[in-house]
Amino acid sequence: MKPLERLKTEVPGLSPNGKYVIVGIDPGIVNTGIVVYHIYPHVRLISVAHTAIVGYDVQDIMAFLRQHSLNGPLSWTYLFVEAYRPRSHFDTDARMGAAVNEIKKMGPDVYALDNTGVKNVVSRALLELLNSWNFSTKSNHQDVRSAARIAILGMLKNETLNRLLAQVVFSKINGDSEWVVN
């Protein structure tokens, strides 16, 4: 896994208007959850897009991401995918491992993150604050919520994105309407 580097002033995938696109993916045999956060720091706006696709077909994932891309096809600042740890050594393990590996090949700045303890770090309160607790898209095992958790975990591990999230949280906790999340 590549180390999470600090964002620089000129980040691949960062548009001239300063928009960040952060993607979270929770691959699954039945459903794959996908969440895309469009973050506009200059206007204090976070827009959240989400879906659940049947299975884990990379072409279906790419089709959704193209709809929510930054500067053309398959463009993002960071894409975080939930890593898969083999458990049973059956066919499911091989298929899930292959799915994660295919997603990691989708482009630059794709990181597989272990989700051990993620519910302790990315709490319900934080998910609710970022409009990422209840989704209109239903999935087999809350895959969309898990995709949101993995995206937020990735943001928390990145110094610049962590600071940005802290600004959003402080704004929301203090009751001001400085940041809008929709």
Structural commentary:
It is a single chain. The protein has 182 residues and is an alpha/beta fold. The chain contains six helices and six strands. The protein has helices at residues 58-67, 91-104, 118-121, 124-129, 143-157, 159-173; strands at 20-26, 31-40, 45-54, 78-82, 110-113, 180-181. Strands 5-4-1-2-3-6 form a six-stranded mixed β-sheet. The longest helix has 15 residues, at 143-157. It is globular. The relative contact order is 0.21.
Question: Cα distance, first to last residue?
Answer: 32 Å
- Envelope shape: globular
Task: Output mean pLDDT.
Answer: 83
Tell how many strands the DSSP assignment holds: 6
What's the helix-strand series?
EEEHEHEHHHHE
Report the major sheet: 6 strands, mixed
Uncertain segments are: 1-13
β-strand percent reads 15-25%
Classify the helix fraction into a percent range: 25-40%
Number of helices: 6
The assigned structural class equals alpha/beta
What is the radius of gyration?
Answer: 16 Å
How do the strands and helices of this protein lay out in sequence?
Layout: E1 20-26, E2 31-40, E3 45-54, H1 58-67, E4 78-82, H2 91-104, E5 110-113, H3 118-121, H4 124-129, H5 143-157, H6 159-173, E6 180-181
